[in-house]
Design goal:
- By secondary structure, the chain is mainly α.
- About 55% of the residues lie in helices and about 5% in strands.
- It is built from 5 helices and 2 strands, in the order αααββαα.
- It has helices at about 10-25, 40-45, 50-60, 85-105, 110-125, and strands spanning about 65-70, 70-75.
- The protein has a two-stranded antiparallel sheet with strand order 1-2.
- α1 crosses α3 (about 50-60) and α2 packs across α3 (about 50-60).
- The radius of gyration is 18 Å and the shape is globular.
Length: about 130
């Protein structure tokens, strides 16, 4: 379920937070669904349970999850997640994608064309293909 890059300069708990946010925003984890327990996830990822606990605490602070003592951690319903957090995450993802696209040689015009295509889809226009 999770792939963490142990060679990354980004701390493991931050990678875990980002991955869980992505899964929650994309509704892989549904509202009020129970997250894997700290122990289970620690065994699955072979990392220290304290790292998982730290990530869960931060996600709870950001209101992506909530905890019920003795029962575990659960996904906060999307309507309760601050819209700003979702947009912030999306912007970070777009910057990463644009950076990679430019690195791979895509031109500004090609990127703008893709943006126009996405905008057309939202408006219900037919694709140009």
């Amino acid at each position: 379920m999770f792939e963490l890059d142990v060679r990354s300069r980004k701390p493991i708990y931050e990678q875990l937070i980002d991955k869980l946010k992505e899964l929650i925003i994309n509704e892989v984890f549904k509202a009020d669904e129970k997250l894997p327990s700290v122990r289970t996830l620690a065994q699955e990822l072979t990392i220290n349970p304290n790292t998982i606990q730290k990530a869960y605490r931060e996600l709870e602070r950001q209101e992506f999850i909530y905890s019920i003592p003795g029962k575990g951690s659960f996904v906060t319903p999307q309507k309760n997640i601050k819209q700003g957090e979702k947009v912030k995450k999306m912007k970070q993802d777009m910057i990463s994608l644009f950076t990679e696209a430019i690195f791979l040689g895509m031109k500004r015009e090609e990127i703008e064309e893709l943006l126009n295509e996405a905008e057309s889809r939202v408006k219900g226009d037919k694709p140009n293909d």
